[in-house]
Amino acid sequence: MAYRKILIAFAIFTSTTVYGQVFHSLGLGVGLGERQGDFSQPRMHIEGDSLYVCTSKGLYAKNLTNSNNVWQLVGFENVPLQDYARKGNDILALRYNKGGHFLLLSHDGGHTYEDITPDLFCSEKHEILPCLAQHPADSSILLVSSLYWGIFRSADFGQTWENLTECLYGNGAASFIGFHPACPSIIYNSGEGAILEGHINISYDAGQTWNDHGDSLGFPGDNCVHRPAFHPTNPECWIAGGEGVVYSTTDNGYTWNCQNFWDDGKRAAYWFFSAFDTEHPDTIYMAGCTTGDLGAIKVMYSTDGGKSWSIPQTEPRKIASIECVNDLQQYSDKLLIYSESDVYEVSKTELLEQCANSLQVISDTVGSSDIYDLQGRKVNSKSKKGIYIQNGKKVVK
User: Fold this and answer.
1) Mind spelling out the 3-state secondary structure of 141-204?
2) Per-residue pLDDT tens for 185-196?
3) pTM, whole model, 2 decimals?
4) Domains of the chain, with CATH numbers?
């Protein structure tokens, strides 16, 4: 027992003094990412080595290969943007607005544009269009969600639209739509129902018919299903965060398993975004935010496919309101987290080193001879040369 107490103390000491803060600002600055209203969901995209961010003042970009590169306004100046889709030289931008003027088409990267919002979306019943999604293989096919009138599909890059559903799950700030990246005939809408219960509505035939899988989620009370992530080599495996919970499925969303962390104060957060590591799919990341007066950004990680999760790392809020997370992306060996206060870069290595130390905190069976790699996985003592974690310390073999 005394040995275990020493391990716990050592792990806490190393995580706060050796590794330090894992959130590194990319300098977008307070204000540009701030939401325009309860239903605003500005997103970001990685194109090659450039990061494009939808902000309250237009579309900004930064070269990710140059740490000294500053942000540049590249289009849609002073337009509060939610998201965009690109087709060749054309950009269709989704603007935050109530009551119309949602869709802006540019042929020159956003320097000039025209409003192509059809009359369909200008009626009073379409309060806001919170989400835009683009087909992974056919750039002409788009989805938008409308509060509170459902999901709409376009096959001609936004010129015309057809209604696919009669309702939208979610409250706008926590409603997500998209295509399955490997099986784009599968479309999802995740969120919460009328009485705040978690739901995910899935179509397996490109939107012709829909299946509400809320009853299979395994969570009995007040909750929400946020944006799912898809395993890069096993397309039937998805994972999604909720309000203090993690949902997973291994059969393309027909049935779900639920981990309830709601009573765990360390992991109690709105886990909005998930991502499987592009090189090590058993490693999963989740980004979200806490609530209340201490609202802050959180990120946690799993190295065993979502069966167990690390203690989250937290970035204290830098704005007056609750610090919400707008998006999560991966670039090389880094996570990019877009919040209302800034875009933050998180080194996967730093994060996974924290995970290796966390293993010693949560394991009752760890011994002095146990060896872990920097991704927190136990390895054989005869492993090849490299840097490992043993007895709470880095060792070189």
Assistant:
1) CEEEEEECCEEEEECCCCCCCEECCCCCCCCCCCCEEEECCCCCCCEEEEEECCCCEEEEEEEC
2) 999 999 887 777
3) 0.84
4) 32-37+122-362 (2.130.10.10), 364-397 (no CATH)
